[in-house]
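Example 3.2
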Amino acid sequence: MDTKIYAPLWALFLLLTTPLHGQLTTIHNKLRPGDFVVKQQVHFIDPGDAGIDQTWDFSSLRTIDSEYTLTYDLPAANDSMYIVPGQCFEKRTTRADELVTGTEHNTVYYYRMQNNTLTLLGHENPVVKLAYTKPLPVLRFPFRYGDNDSAAYTSEALYSGIIPVQARGYATITADAWGRMKLPDDVVLDTVLRVRSLQVIENIPVGNQEKGEAETTTVETCRWYLKGYRYPVFETIRSSGQDGEVQFATAFYYPLQDHFYLDEDPQNTAVLDRLRDAESKGSVSLDPFRKKAYRIFPNPTDGFLYVDLTLNQPSNVDYMLFSADGRLCKRVHRNKPDGVHREEIDCTQLPSGTYLLKLVYGTETASELIIKK
């Protein structure tokens, strides 16, 4: 066959790779002073497994606090300095977008954006004032599925204005999963990227405090990001002691209709407009709100691939599997009545690698990445 036929399909494969694997960038995901974020505190939900093509069913959320808000702003300043716990920054040598605070639940968090890396400088509330003497890494940009970072940190704190506390530890950040998320009201987000942060905290006795075995706490934070939205759409937080027993766990849902900052976020608004335009023109559906009419499993596969497809009316159906270089490896054509149908695709003889499965059913078109073990 003429390989020129496959050029548009190869371009389609590249187009799909970005939203499926996800990528966080400074343009679309950097914290911005002035943004106001609304989220709901909900009962903790286990974040599930890492890997590709995951499904997180969060459709039965139980709300604890529906008025939970997060505000981003510039740090406090005098005529010449920005003031954060443990240090000051001269205004004349500090970029306008370098420092930002996040305020939620009576606590102010201090962030710094430097060399495309977001770090946490410290936090304070009526009980504690903490400064990281070696900043805590939060996220590096760009960040996509499979990326990971790890770094050590140290901190000093003062509890109740009189009790000194020191800590050290390390943090790892991994974009460890992507897939689809089910939310209430039959909303399906497709696809979302999960970033998992693991912070190990070892408290160090200070001054006259009793010297003993250092107490260690581990905090796991998982955040799910959706293309076209600057901030996460869901978040889980869980801390545990050195014996592995959970000490605290909660979760937060960021309702899509309450991402009000989008009114002043032309970069993400443009992304959402392109996705909706592609959907309206009948091209490959990249709309994150679409409900799937199909289910593909197992993925990854080491043998047979199964596709469950729901048709609302009798339709011609094409199943086409392409290799990464655009070569057509498998094609199955069916004429099906309405209802649910299962198609079996034999992948046993295919080499290991990444493939593109394209479905054409009636007037609908969809594409999914497939991993052959």
